[in-house]
Structure formats: structure tokens, C-alpha cells
Amino acid sequence: MGTENIILLVLVVVVVAIGLWSTVRHFRGKGGGCCGGGDYKPRKKKLSHVAGQKTFQVEGMHCEHCKVRVEEAVNDIKGAAGKVDLKKGLLTVSYAESLDDEQVKQKVERAGYHLTGTR
């Protein structure tokens, strides 16, 4: 193996390592990319009482930043609080008063994601 091949191999290994490191940071919500990333801490919302819960399937969430955006979109609805299970792509909405599915759909889609159904 010549010196040129060794140098080329080292460069390829370094580029792959940097790519993997960047990808891991992105999916942890710490890098830039499609979702913005950052170390932003979401505001939590607790309801004084919960009348019920609904679970929705959401497409388009890839990282912690996506999760935060969906939760905050739902938290903007009066009397509702959202919690996302990123691995399953599920949004659970707790509500204190009656909740219109269409209102949840509009908020989530305005945030850039797609509600595909309820569970």
C-alpha cells in the first residue's frame, strides 16, 4: 500500500467520523440542520385537571427539536397540553375541556408536521 493510499484512507476515515458525530448531535437536538437544533429548553404546561386524553400519529418529527416544536404548538391551545413520544411518532394531548381534533391538526401542521390519524 503506497503513501498516497494511506493518506486517502485516513482522510476518508476522518470525514466519515465527522459525519457520524454531526448526525448524532442533530438527532439529539444539538446541531443545526433541518430543524434548527440548539440547547433550547421547552416550557412545560400542566393542567389543573384532565378531562381526557387523545393520541395522534405525527409524521415528520426527526429529533428533539421537532418534539419540542410539536409539544409547544399543542400547548398554545387553551386547556390542552401535549407530550410527544419521538420514537413512536405519537403525540398525546391531555385536555381540561372538550378538544376539537381539527384544532390540534391545524396547530401541528402550522409547526411543519403532519397529523396522520388518531389512536
From TrEMBL:
The chain crosses the membrane at residues 6-24. Pfam families: HMA. InterPro entries: Heavy-metal-associated_CS, HMA_dom, HMA_dom_sf. Residues 52-116 form the HMA domain. SUPFAM superfamilies: HMA, heavy metal-associated domain. Keywords: Membrane, Metal-binding, Transmembrane, Transmembrane helix. One of its GO terms (molecular function) is metal ion binding. This is Copper chaperone. It comes from Evtepia gabavorous.
